[in-house]
Amino acid sequence: MTDREPILGAVVVWRDLPRAIWVLLLARAVNRLGAFSLPFLSLVLVNDFRASLTSAGYLISAFGLATIPSRLLGGHLADRFGPKATICLGLAGTAAAQLLVAGSHTFTQAIFAVILLGLFFEIYEPASQALIADVTDEYQRPAAYNLLAVAMAVAGMGAGLLAAVVAGIDLRWLFIIDAATCLLCAAVVAFALTDKTARGQRDTHRSRERGAWSDRRLLAMLAVGTIFATIYLQITIALPLTITQRHLPVSVVGVLLVLSTLTLVLVQPVLNRSRLRLLGHFRIMTLGYLLLGAGLAVYGFATTIAAFAAATVIWSLGDAVLIGRAFTVVASLAPDAKRAQYLAVYGTSWGIAAIIAPTAGTWLLELGGPPLTWSTMATASVLLALVQPSLGRRLTRH
């Protein structure tokens, strides 16, 4: 892997990406459109199963913990049996668990269903990421990962609108619809993709290469990714609390998330044709982390909707710059036969962060309010920016 090669300066037009990318994109977008059940899980547990808030919280934490082995299993299965079979297995298992949640009659049954959901929930993720890497050249990968992220963000907006309609009928229907979209996504992948779309026919037999967990380069990326994920999750954890502390309507949070998605979508064509594409991944990520930190710093002192909106645009520009870069680097570090496992290990950063972020965010808010919380997040972002040059040199040296 190299941090800068002439081909990385090439303009990658989305419509020129391989057909397999578009099939996967369609399938995942359909799945994301129906993936609005999870935010309502705590309400279902409390209202339908009469669980206490504490019990519901413990069970949701157990779900988050279960997603870590789920992702690692997905990486192993994708390298052993291929991305297509793994994606279909993960989606089918997720659908079955969703239906079990909807059909549970007791809290004990719900516990089993929710943990099972966590164990299947992330299986398809590393397989999807590995499939993108398999069918693209390195210079195409940032654009391909960007396209997937943009599609997920747009579909997520639609999911929120659908949730607002369905939630008023019966919350359990959210899980049934989510299960249906999982099965539809699996059907699209099963009939429209073949494992032959993976260029190079990755050897799915046991490789003599060292394991992913013993690769220090990957562990360095995992450490950076965990810090980034912990920062990023504060947008869903600490931002709503910050908005209410500033005596603004909670609906502002939804407006800001929509603004973030619009920024992400609109800026992509500009970024693809800017001089940024001439830079290596780590220089681009340095800029991304600086923009992220600048936007989050403004959150700490914003008191008006306009100020929060300006901050959102700034950090969203950083997010747009960062999207796809880390996955591209990790995919290039991996031996072909272990690419999904490398991506799975890197992806556990989000599971680890999901355990750390809620406690860290609420503790900082109690200790020093929004100024301390967002200044801390901004400082962490700047530190990530500062380590990128040395991280790039270390990884490219090998």
UniProtKB/TrEMBL annotation:
Membrane topology per record: Multi-pass membrane protein
Domain Major facilitator superfamily (MFS) profile: 20-393
Family annotation (InterPro entries): MFS, MFS_dom, MFS_trans_sf, MFS_Transporters
Pfam families: MFS_1
Record's keyword terms, sorted: Cell membrane, Membrane, Transmembrane, Transmembrane helix, Transport
Transmembrane segments: 21-45, 51-69, 81-101, 107-124, 145-167, 173-193, 218-241, 247-267, 287-308, 314-334, 343-365, 371-391
Stated name of the protein: MFS transporter
